[in-house]
Amino acid sequence: MSLNRRELLGGAAALSTAAMLPSAAMAADTIQLGSILDTSGIFDAYGKPMDQAMRLAVKEINDAGGLLGKQVEVAAYDTQSDMALYSQYAQQLTRQDKVDVVHGGILSASREAIRQTMRKTKTLYFYNVQYEGGVCDRNIFVTGVTPAQQVEVLVPYAMKKSGPKVHILAADYNYGQITARWIQKFVEENGGEVVATDFFPLDVADFGSTITKIQQTAPDLVFAPLVGGAHLSFFRQWSAAGMKDKIPLASTTMGVGNEHKVLTPEEGNGIMVAYNYSQELDTPANIAFKEKWQAEYGDTTAIHELAVSTYQGIMLWAAGVQKAGSIERDAVVDALETGISIEGPAGKVTIDPQTHHATVDVHIMEFEGQGMTVIETLPQRAPIDTQAVCDLQANPGDNTQYEIEI
Amino acid sequence: MDLSFVILVEVLYGVASLVLISAGLAVVFGMMKVINLAHGEFMMMGGYATITAVGLGVNVFVAMLVIAPLVVGLIGLIVERLVIRHLYGRLVDTMLATWGLSLVFIGLATMIFGNTTTGISTPIPGFAFGGYQVNGYNFFIIIVSIVLVIAMYAVLRGTRAGLIARGTMQRSNMAAALGYSPDRIYMMTFFCGSALSGLAGAVLAPLVGLVPTSGGAYIAKAFITVISGGPSLIAGLVSSATSFGLVSQFFTFAISPVIGEVALLIAAVVLLRTMPQGITGRFFKGKL
User: Fold this and answer.
1) CA separation (Å) from A343 to A127, A287, A289, A293, A386?
2) What is the distance in angstroms between the Cα of A241 and the nearest Cα belonging to chain B?
3) For chain B, which terminal residue's Cβ has fewer other Cβ atoms within 10 angstroms, N or C?
4) CA atoms within 13 A on the CB side of A303
């Protein structure tokens, strides 16, 4: 095909006008919230309730009159558990839809796939998932727990209940790799020893040889930051091999996607976890939240920690916008950096200005009859792991994910 | 001692699962020379048939060993009548057609069951052996594949139907001259091959859980096993599954499961480089 310059310029002008018109028209009367989540594929157990929570939060904001007198409109994309789609939809959200804020990303791999796009296009980004910590970027806010809030409390509890020898099974990507190092650090600090660490690609579903190997290393405790539907097989096979009553299990991910409701009670009972949220939390905020969810979706069983985190993330963003009186990115960031806090279903959530992470309550829990029983509550834990390496007040241009060194 | 027994079970399980995964393809590809790229999806449908049947209250063993093979066999029959029978002898065309079929099946499964992970618990409890725990279900898989191999051998060697099928695959015009309809024999053979794939998918489902795209995990291993096996159907299947099972489990225990998979693929490359006709092209010549 050959084009002369006049045709090319004419076409380009027409295209760019067409692309600019609708968003310019919309920007005037609504606020655009972009959402990017895996609502199908092997991570849909995480993503579907997050999507529901996002829509619930937006509906609540709109029912209360919107933000700054404008309605919030959702532009949501399903990334189908395919990391390649994240960068594609991130481009779509930031360059074509020109949204005012993006909430989303589930796996750490997906967050890193879109974080730089958000930063470059100056689109405010909220990552509402517990993760391995260390992201230092003024453009992002993280409302999930990090290892110092979770692993640090879970390791001594689990070791006290079992013993000092720990075998780690982790998902083979940035989250699993870095979390495994945090686990090792805390195990050693508590006088224990990591006897072996195994990593598994996300599609591995046959753990037979691994279970035999674990018996060879004979640990007192198995720590399993495994991720996604395929890895769920480990817990089934572990129980099928009769190992469940011999070696206790702890996990940093099991249950964030309500996996304990997919497993039978026999397969799940006794697994030790630490999270910000449990459906069993008996607080007025949580009861009210569950009632709203019930009214919207008719059934509360799907609610999990990531969904609540998403809800809290959107509410924090909304609080920031109200305080700033603007949807401009820098104004909202400044407002959020005043240390804004909200009372969410999982308790008080406060933005830490230094790291853009959140200070939250953490509960040590055990699975029991397909629920999570709270054993111990540690109120208002700060993200000290990220605080140790990241100071956005002193160094606002930082754009690194710091990793723990052993 | 205990440990070596446990490792032996794991190795046998590795071999048995390769036999299971590849048996259906050995019939369809090894005997009929149809490159069935939808083999993995036949297995996936076997898994869903089992889970659906169990959900409807059917005993899990009946669902796995009877219902799933029948359902997938019937789907195979329909596919054979509609698509495959027009393409016998056209290798590349069957490849394209069955690849299209695999996409259709993935799409249908996604529409019906959703793009989400489902699973059922393994029906057999684990037991202790010395200081170790063994997954009882592994034994079940080992036994199923042993029975399967013996049954395939008995049918192909000992029955008239097996003889006719083998004869037709070798010289279909001669079989036709003797009064047998190659068309119907091809149809029945494809039914059996599909049913075997369905059985494999069903038996493995409780162990690994299912998504509509699960089939993709099996297809490469199945083809590698069947091609490396060479011209003899059963001797080839058993010998290549044994070699690859040993290699992959050895490296799995020595290093990690990921390296085990890598070792399997490297072993396949080396094996086909040194024996382009497959294992039974050099050893066990003329065996079934």
Assistant:
1) 18, 13, 11, 17, 23
2) 4
3) N
4) 27
Residue with tokens 């080839």: B236
CA A290 – CA A119 distance, rounded (Å): 34
Superfamily of domain A20-145+280-361+381-401 in the CATH hierarchy: Response regulator (3.40.50.2300)
Crossing angle for the helix pair A284-297 and A44-63, to the nearest 10 degrees: 100
Closest approach of chain A CAs to the CA of B93, in angstroms?
A: 30
Q: For an interface test with A, give the residue of B8, B115, B219 to mutate (most A CBs within 10 A).
A: B115
Interface probe, candidates B7, B116, B203, B204, chain A, greatest A C-beta count within 10 A: B116
Query: Which residue do the tokens 């029912």 mark?
Result: A63
Residue A149 to residues A33, A152, A175, A373, B57, Cα–Cα distance (Å): 29, 6, 15, 19, 44
**H and E: helices and strands count for chain A:** 14, 16
Cα A48 → chain centroid: 13
Which ipTM value was assigned to this complex?
Answer: 0.78
pLDDT of residue A14: 52
Q: Which DSSP letter does residue B3 get?
A: H
Which structural domains are found in chain B, ordered by start? 6-120+132-282 (1.10.3470)
Q: Which CATH superfamily is domain A151-251 in?
A: Response regulator (3.40.50.2300)
Q: Length of chain A in residues, anyone?
A: 406
B187-232 pLDDT, tens digit per residue, is 999 999 999 999 999 999 888 878 898 898 899 999 999 999 998 9
Q: Which amino acid is at B73?
A: G
Tens-place pLDDT, residues B20-79 = 999 999 999 988 989 999 999 999 999 999 999 999 999 999 999 999 999 999 999 999
> Under a CB-based contact definition with an 8 Å cutoff, are residues A100 and A326 in contact?
no
Show residues of chain B in contact with A246, CB under 8 Å: 133
Q: Do A206 and B257 touch (CB under 8 A)?
A: yes
Domain spans in chain A, listed from the N-terminal domain onward: 20-145+280-361+381-401, 151-251
Amino acid letter, A51? D
Total residue count of chain B as it appears in this document: 288
Three-state SS for A8-49 is: HHHHHHHHHHHHHHHHHHHHHHEEEEEEEECCCCCCHHHHHH
Same fold across A20-145+280-361+381-401 and A151-251:
yes
Of B25, B67, B73, whose CA–CA distance to B49 is shortest? Answer: B67
Q: At CA B121, angle to CA B115 and CA B124, rounded to 5?
A: 150
pLDDT per residue as tens digits for the range A5-47: 555 555 555 555 444 444 444 445 899 999 999 998 888 889 9
CB contact set of B71 (below 8 Å; sequence gap of 6+):
B45, B46, B49, B198
Three-state DSSP class for A75? strand
| CA-based nearest residue to B218, from B59, B60, B40, B97 | B40
pLDDT number for residue A2: 53
In chain B, whose CA is at the least distance from the CA of A43?
Answer: B116
Task: Tally helices (H) and strands (E) across chain B.
Answer: 13, 2
